[in-house]
Recover the amino acids of this structure.
């Protein structure tokens, strides 16, 4: 009988070097993200929130809260990183006082704490890539079924679930505005808003055409099908940014909100659809029972989309949001999700790929986001 392979003993010096490396990284990160200035701004913003008249101006209060959350998104993980590295250093000192198996156990615990510090560092590293004008803002997202019929509508439903899971992992809040069901199954379109620190900066990595290859559950012959869905992302802009919307340029339609039936279905035409005639941009909201509230939310989304539209015109980058977009089909996808004959999800922009299709569909898309952000940062540096 072959001898069991003995577990390699941990060397105290190796663990010491790991901690020292983390300490250097913490110092570099502190300087890179300007942690002292962020602490100062956070204290200033929290002081404003403590004022007795803070909520007198609702729009200004919401803006302060958003800015507070943006600063806290850096300060909180940095403090957690700092504490984790300090804890690892203390644990190592205690490990040095032990011998034999007790020391090995203490060294393993120290490395586990170092791994925790690595997770905080990874989060800060990703956020350090987010420096765009609206990266800290909330985001409006629209998913739209492309080529593929019922299969494409089902694909939209799958993507919606994926982003719901991802938002949950990030601690974000999702608010659905409107959805249009497919003829047989799934969704033709779904509009939703994601609220959370740096939601737009992160979710803009998902903008583009997503391609699915699988054995169709809607095909009795079990043939392989290819489907497409588009993901559009627009930052929720602040009220201090002026976007002119003329009454004569706006068509307002009201309709009855959809639902599963029962006592909660709206009996009045409370849902609102806005069409901006000069640009053709259409937004809708049916979440609220009040027509007035639905119109207010739809107007907020329209302002954001028009701002991006006009910015695209200025930059002559009409394919970025609502100009000459790529077709929602072959040859224009940013990411492929292959379920059959093999399993793989591959981002065609960064070449990042994984065989863990189930994990990705369960919301584990962070590596794709990080790879794209790093690619964009490298382009800017170049």
């Amino acid at each position: 009988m072959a001898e069991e392979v003995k577990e390699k003993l941990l060397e105290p010096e190796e663990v010491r070097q790991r901690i020292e490396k983390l300490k250097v990284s913490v110092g570099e990160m502190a300087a890179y993200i300007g942690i002292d200035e962020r602490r100062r701004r956070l204290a200033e913003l929290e002081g404003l929130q403590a004022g007795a008249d803070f909520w007198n101006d609702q729009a200004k209060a919401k803006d302060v809260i958003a800015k507070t959350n943006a600063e806290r998104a850096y300060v909180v993980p940095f403090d957690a990183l700092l504490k984790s590295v300090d804890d690892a250093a203390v644990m190592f000192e205690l490990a040095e006082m032990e011998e034999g198996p007790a020391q090995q156990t203490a060294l393993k615990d120290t490395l586990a704490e170092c791994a925790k510090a690595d997770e905080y560092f990874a989060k800060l590293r990703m956020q350090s890539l987010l420096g765009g004008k609206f990266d800290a803002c909330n985001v409006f997202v629209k998913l739209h079924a492309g080529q593929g019929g019922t299969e494409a509508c089902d694909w939209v439903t799958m993507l919606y679930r994926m982003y719901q899971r991802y938002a949950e992992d990030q601690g974000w809040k999702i608010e659905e505005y409107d959805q249009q069901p497919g003829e047989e199954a799934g969704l033709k379109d779904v509009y939703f808003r994601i609220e959370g620190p740096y939601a737009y900066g992160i979710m803009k990595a998902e903008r583009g055409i997503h391609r699915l290859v699988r054995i169709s559950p809607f095909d009795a012959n079990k043939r392989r099908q290819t489907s497409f869905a588009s993901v559009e992302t627009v930052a929720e802009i602040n009220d201090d940014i002026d976007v002119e919307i003329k009454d004569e340029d706006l068509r307002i339609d009201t309709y009855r909100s959809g639902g599963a039936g029962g006592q909660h279905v709206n009996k009045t035409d409370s849902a609102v659809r806005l069409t901006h005639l000069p640009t053709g941009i259409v937004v809708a909201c049916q979440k609220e029972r009040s027509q007035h509230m639905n119109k207010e939310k739809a107007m907020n989304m329209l302002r954001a989309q028009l701002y991006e539209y006009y910015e695209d015109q200025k930059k002559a980058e009409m394919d970025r949001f609502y100009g000459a977009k790529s077709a929602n089909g072959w040859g224009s996808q940013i990411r492929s999700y292959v379920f059959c004959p093999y399993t793989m999800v591959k981002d065609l922009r960064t070449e990042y790929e994984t065989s863990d299709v189930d994990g990705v569909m369960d919301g584990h898309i962070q590596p794709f986001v990080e790879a794209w952000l790093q690619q964009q940062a490298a382009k800017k540096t170049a």
Summary: The chain has three domains: 12-127, 139-237+322-381, 247-315.
